[in-house]
Amino acid sequence: MVSTVSCVDIDEYDDTPQGNFDALWKIIDEHYCFFEYKNKEYGLDWDAIYNKYKVRVDDKMNDDQLFEVLGEMLAELRDGHVNLATSADFSRYWSWYENYPSNVSDTLLRRYLGTDYKIAGGLKYKILDDNIGYIRYESFTDGIGESNLDDVINHLMLCRGLIIDIRNNGGGTLTYAERFAARFINATTLVGYIQHKTGTGHHDFSKPEEQRLEPSSNLRWQKRVCLLTNRKVYSAANEFVKYMKITGHVQVIGDHTGGGAGLPFSSQLPNGWAVRFSACPMYDSNGNSTEFGIAPDHYVSLSQSDLLLGKDTIIEYARSLLSQ
């Protein structure tokens, strides 16, 4: 998702290790959006986190030591949208996918796509030999225009079903996710809710605002769809899964997505280090958070036996469903 700059006053903090530590803790304390949710999920207590890490900060420590402490403190949020960036390093929390099987193989994807696939903007696509359309979308940072989507749907129109493979898609621009999903609905659809911070307290939010998706006025796909996911599907890609699950003719196959349901904002510390964090929570159409991901309709993992045969278990499962 695209980051937005958040105005946070840091003038009151000195450019010292202690000053930068206090500034970072305060920025997150006043503007992070998932404190209540994560307290319920795993007992996150931001005040206790302050006390835990404050004792590790010393004004004699160097930048590398300070960066390590600040990065570990931010990791307590368990949020892939939370980062600390310097010219020398980038702190991150990637356990939402690093601790799980990848369930995708570049070697197998090259086998299925071959060398004769078509490319339309960020989409790679072809017709498989059983007359099922296959679209690979690797990142929502790769643009897709309306004409791209018209050409892809027109080419695949006579296929009996469609596979959309977004495994390892870590997100990008939400507009592309909305534009793509609009090709699979026929009426204005409630896809979720969003809230905005209204104050510095952990509970200071606006009333949930509806997220509605308008159907495309161009070509739309009316047949069945299998959407392939894994743990590395995150942020705008996670939102795309949220949209597609409620269309009525899409089945999600593979692994649980990684999540990332907060719009990220940015600020900086007195020493100039940039910090990014989730500031606006988003929910599905039932009002549930998808911060920790979305479960598939069919849990399917790559099997070692299929891998040795040159088969992608998840793609083959989708082909089987669409052939029924």
Structural class, by secondary structure, is alpha/beta
Strand content: 15-25%
H-E string? EHHHHEEHHEEEHEHEEEHEEEEHH
- CA(first)-CA(last) distance: 36 Å
Mean pLDDT rating:
96
Poorly predicted tracts of residues: 2-7
What is the strand tally?
A: 14
Rg, Cα atoms, Å: 22 Å
Query: Major β-sheet, in short?
Result: 7 strands, mixed
What would the principal axes of the Cα set say about the shape? Answer: elongated
Helix content percent band: 25-40%
How would you summarize the topology of this molecule?
Blueprint: E1 4-5, H1 17-31, H2 35-42, H3 46-54, H4 63-75, E2 83-85, E3 90-91, H5 95-98, H6 106-113, E4 118-120, E5 123-127, E6 133-137, H7 146-156, E7 162-165, H8 174-181, E8 189-194, E9 209-213, E10 225-229, H9 236-245, E11 250-254, E12 262-268, E13 274-283, E14 298-299, H10 304-308, H11 313-323
Give a structural overview.
- This protein has eleven helices and 14 strands.
- Mean pLDDT is 96; it is low at 2-7.
- The relative contact order is 0.18.
- It has helices spanning 17-31, 35-42, 46-54, 63-75, 95-98, 106-113, 146-156, 174-181, 236-245, 304-308, 313-323, and strands at residues 4-5, 83-85, 90-91, 118-120, 123-127, 133-137, 162-165, 189-194, 209-213, 225-229, 250-254, 262-268, 274-283, 298-299.
- The protein is 31% helix and 20% strand.
- It is elongated and about 65 Å long.
